[in-house]
Amino acid sequence: MIGKVSSRLLGISLLLIAAGCNKTDTGGAIDAGGSAVAPTPAVIQGACPKVFLLDGTAIHTSYAGAKDDPTKLVYQATLVDTTRQCVQNESQLVMTVVVQGRVVSGPAGSAGTINLPIRVAATDGENTLFSELTQYPVTIQPGAGASQFLFTKANIALPGGAGSFAKVYVGFDEGPQAKKKK
């Protein structure tokens, strides 16, 4: 009898510990002066949408002239890894996405700052919940040939409850192609 009760208590204790790992305390606090402090939003990783890098948008190349000529390559940028954090408030899930990338200077490249067109988009099936294009500056140091960078997009607001179904995509987006004149 005692063994059954203690095993049940152990099981319940483990469930409570596991539940505590998914959400931080959102209760208000009292500061040293005795005043009430506003509650801190809960950091929720379990309901935080996953971030995806698509094969077609994870590499960006820039050429000085013909795109098929490797001697005209100015630089090649690559997105390689992601992480994210979500905070839940009363009505929405607010995300921060961080992406690691690398830029390699080509034969036609030189040291200096380039702007990489990075788009962050969140979808829920067919619906676009968020989409923003950022021109992110990256500096290639003289003689380095390659530079690493961390792109951070904060304050991505998604509707409350979207975390279960939403997907976040990060990639290079050059925008619509310019129309050729006749």
UniProtKB/TrEMBL annotation:
Designated name of the protein: Lipoprotein
Annotated signal sequence range: 1-18
Sorted UniProt keywords: Signal
Keyword Signal: yes
